[in-house]
Design a protein that fits this description.
six-stranded parallel beta sheet, 10 helices, single chain, globular, Helicase_C-like, 23% strand, 385 residues, nucleotide-binding, seven-stranded parallel beta sheet, alpha/beta, 28% helix
């Protein structure tokens, strides 16, 4: 078990057109110093590997050590119930799904089982869909656990593997059978939801034991043993979205109504950031825009909270961000890019804090779709449980 490295000995790096480091078939012909050859395009960010290279496993794990856990706050009764279930699954070596609503405190519920796994001499991987979410995980873990946290994402540590590792998926491509317990956060999010090769890669990096954590699981994830949590940790209901026909006046009214509070407006695509931004500018609103191209998203998040401003965002912010007292609008919510799971996640940004447990959520629409109705119905059902 370990990290696959290019070596003079070992097994061929590309066999039958498939890269043995990342299991991708995205290989291209080129000419190396040995002559006609092929190289893998998928894992170029780890260094080029070609057909005449060989791969060998290198042990990059640190010595086994135990940890102490200091919980950041006392878990509620429902959170303790979920936490005990995770411990039972670990004792039985069973994979499972935590199906908990947005804002339920899923991160802290997993701390006891992470501590148990580490103190049993095993290694834990927390894999996140995005770098900024991974950073938030690592920061929280560092305040709670006494062992060092390995940060295996862009800008983090890639040379060693400690007892607890927080990573994004692309930097796990060259690992094999390292982790005894793999926690997949937001397991239905992009890119996990659409890339089968990623799941094969995660399966190879671990040893077959998974914990999926999400508020909106996919159909196949629901086949695993499941523990539900339908209440937020502060005990208040989830905000139920309102449906409002989209007009320029309706959008402006929403922004004016909550003047003095943070306002988060989701849009389907990056061109929509410009289109809706021009509308806000014409009527004198100050705003910032966030997409996958925005380098300092944390700064924008702090600005939104501190200035009670307006942020136009693509779905890059549908998960993993919390702003106290925010009101949420999803513009053009009938757009095909907005699935019911995405709408639930975006609606879940409101009312997450105990000192601001409510918030307005509006689905602005040009036409009604089953995805809007399904999202509202699932939120209402969660509130009734």
């Amino acid at each position: 078990m370990g990290q696959l490295i290019v070596s003079s000995n070992g097994t061929p790096a590309i066999r039958f057109g498939v890269c043995q480091r990342c299991l991708s078939a995205d290989t291209r012909s080129f000419t190396c110093h040995h002559g006609a050859c092929r190289y893998c395009r998928n894992c170029l960010h780890l260094g080029r590997v070609c057909q005449c290279d060989r791969l060998q496993e290198e042990d990059v794990t640190t010595p086994v050590e135990s940890t102490e856990l200091v919980m950041p706050f006392e878990l509620s009764a429902n959170q303790r119930r979920v936490s005990r279930q995770l411990l039972d699954w670990w004792e039985a070596r069973t994979s499972g799904l935590v199906y908990a609503v947005c804002g339920a405190g899923k991160t802290e519920m997993t701390f006891p089982v992470i501590a148990r796994v580490v103190n049993d001499g095993k290694r834990v991987l927390i894999v996140s869909p995005r770098r900024d979410v991974a950073i938030e995980w690592a920061d929280r873990l560092e305040t709670a656990f006494s062992v060092p946290i390995t940060r295996r994402y862009g800008g983090g540590d890639k040379d060693t593997i400690g007892m607890i590792t927080v990573a994004t998926a692309p930097l796990l491509l060259n690992l094999r059978h390292v982790f005894d317990y793999v926690l997949v956060d937001e397991s239905d999010a992009f890119p996990f939801a659409f890339d089968l090769a990623l799941w094969w890669m995660l399966r190879r990096a671990g040893k077959g034991l998974f914990l999926f954590v999400t508020a909106t699981p996919t159909v196949w994830q629901r086949q695993f043993p499941t523990v539900h949590l339908s209440r937020r940790y502060h005990g208040h209901d989830l905000p139920v979205p309102r449906l409002v026909r989209e007009t320029e006046q309706a959008i402006l009214d929403f922004c004016r109504r909550y003047d003095g509070s943070p306002r988060l407006l989701f849009v389907p695509t990056k061109p929509d950031l410009i289109r809706y931004g021009e509308l806000l500018e014409v009527y004198g609103f100050v705003y910032k825009a966030v997409s996958a191209d925005t380098g300092e998203r944390t700064d924008v998040l702090e600005w939104l909270q501190a200035k009670s401003g307006i942020v136009l965002a693509t779905s890059i912010w549908e998960r993993g961000m919390t702003v106290t007292g925010v009101h949420v609008a999803i513009l053009d919510s009938s757009h095909a890019l907005f699935s019911s799971r995405a709408l639930i996640q975006m609606a879940g940004r409101a009312g997450r804090k105990p000192d601001a447990p409510t918030g307005d959520v509006v689905f602005f629409y040009h036409e009604r779709t089953f995805r809007q109705d399904r999202a509202i119905r699932e939120i209402e059902e969660a509130n009734r449980r």
